[in-house]
Amino acid sequence: MKITKIETFVCNARMRNWIFVKVLTDQPGLYGWGEATLEWHTRGVLGSIQDLEPLLIGEDPTRVEYLWQIMYRQHFWHGNGITRATAISGIDIALWDIVGKVHGVPCHRLWGGPVRDYVRLYSHLGGGKMEDFYETTPSDASRFADLAQKAVADGFTAFKTMAVPETAPLEGLKPIKYAEACVRAMRDAVGDDIDIMVDCHARPSPRMGHLFAKALEPYGLYWFEEPCWPEVTEDIASIQRSVTTPIATGERLSGVHAFRDLLEKRACSVIQPDLTHCGGLSEGRKIAALAESYRVSMAPHNPQGPVSTAASIEFGFATPSYIICEAVHRDVPWRQDIVAEGFEIDRKGRLVRPNSRPGLGIEINEKEILKHPFEQELPQRSFYADGSVGDW
Predict the structure, then answer these.
(1) Exposure on the CB side of residue 371, measured as CA atoms within 13 A
(2) Does 307 score more than 70 pLDDT?
(3) Cα Rg, the chain, nearest whole Å
(4) Catalytic residue among 201, 210, 277, 372
(5) Domain 3-106 carries which CATH code?
(6) What percent of the chain has pLDDT over 90?
(7) What mean pLDDT is predicted for residues 354-373?
(8) Could you tell me which of 101, 167, 198, 332 has the fewest CB atoms within 10 Å of its CB?
(9) Average pLDDT over residues 336-358
(10) What's the mean pLDDT in 303-332?
């Protein structure tokens, strides 16, 4: 069995272009689906996949770790850059899909079988300037409360929101009071039985991150995410030590080495590798093993397309430290036209039962993808009041 071709399909999904990767083999009807979606870097990722393809043509697709090593270590430059890491991730996910199909079992069976009966999903409500996943509306406390109630009505028992606004390196009480009002409104709206996460999107400086974390601590957050830049690991660790709220981070990191540094510094309670960026399922499993040794929870970042979601769910069924899966279900109304999924979702509680189909258990409709060709993503720019560049 040999790899004969690697194809890419771009599908515009409003906020981002989904990049699907299809690895074909010389066995009739045997191929694998992966995903390598990276917002505002679509062309770069497509080019990286093309650069990697000559390394893989003619190789056995079931030698997944061997091929991962080739993609990461060959061509002199290691695969640490985000576009290269994302390209590797998309191909790696597709290879695991092939291996599952060869053996006739879901991917989680390849990794030791299910360690849980279901995977819990959580919704993302949006916030700040980010285009809301439900609809575009002003972001204020009452609107956050309405969105929270809508998520619960949709069956979710947990949701995440960007209630922390874009914030200059040092500001007064206004942004702190804004975030506190929004979180208080959501907690009052849904009660204590619903888990609320707040994502800072690494907007604040380390000191502002401390202030936000302290202000929101009384509201019992499930986690407080990316309170400052991921490059300043010591500062994230300092925030983690200063509050009882679990700190989550890691969506912008790639490779086990970056997560090793995060874990060694005891910088968080939850790591969030994105399987489409961190090195795929192969590297994700290594990161998970490392997290397990530190007793740190795992909740992969997953706001992308349906192949990413399928990979995250398969990964969750075989990973003990995995606690919850991010789910985007209203980004585009035609999402389900693109994919046939093997897993079933209990709408009450948004719980996913194990997939029984081989590999990732999905099939992508290529004809539907053609209805949504590449479009340049909307530029997301952030500036502070004085005109200086901020973090979106």
Answers:
(1) 9
(2) yes
(3) 20
(4) 201
(5) 3.30.390.10
(6) 83
(7) 96
(8) 332
(9) 89
(10) 94
Question: Are the CB atoms for 95 and 32 separated by under 8 Å?
Answer: yes
Q: Is the Cα dihedral 220, 318, 45, 101 positive or negative?
A: negative
3-106 shares its CATH topology with 109-369? no
In the numeric block, which tokens belong to residue 188?
A: 């009052």
> Which tokens in the block code for residue 81?
């850059």
Asked whether residue 139 carries a pLDDT value surpassing 70, the answer given is no
- Level-2 CATH architecture, domain 109-369: Alpha-Beta Barrel (3.20)
**Does residue 277 carry a catalytic annotation?**
no
Q: Which residues contact 37 (CB under 8 A, 6 or more apart)?
A: 16, 17, 18, 19, 45, 86, 276, 304, 305, 308
- Spell out the domain ranges in the chain: 3-106, 109-369
Cα end-to-end span (Å), the chain: 46
Report residue 119: phi and psi, to 5°. -110, 130
Answer for the pair 228, 209: CB distance below 8 angstroms, yes or no: yes
Which regions of the chain does DSSP assign to beta strands (E)?
A: 3-12, 17-25, 31-35, 119-124, 158-161, 195-199, 223-225, 247-249, 270-271, 297-298, 325-327, 339-341, 344-346, 351-353, 362-364
Whether residue 22 is predicted with pLDDT greater than 50 in this model: the reply is yes
Residue bearing tokens 């979702």 = 345
DSSP code, position 276: T
**List of residues 6+ apart from 125 with CB closer than 8 A:** 132, 133, 134, 144, 147, 148, 151, 159, 160, 161, 162
Has 75 been annotated as catalytic?
A: no
**pLDDT of 174 above 70:** yes
188: helix, coil or strand? Answer: helix
- What lies within 8 Å, CB to CB, of 273 at 6+ separation is 250, 251, 253, 259, 283, 284, 287, 298, 300, 301
Q: What is the mean pLDDT of the chain?
A: 93
Distance separating alpha carbons of residues 215 and 139, to the nearest angstrom: 19
359, β-bridge pairs: 106
Please check the confidence at residue 369 and state whether its pLDDT lies above 50.
Answer: yes
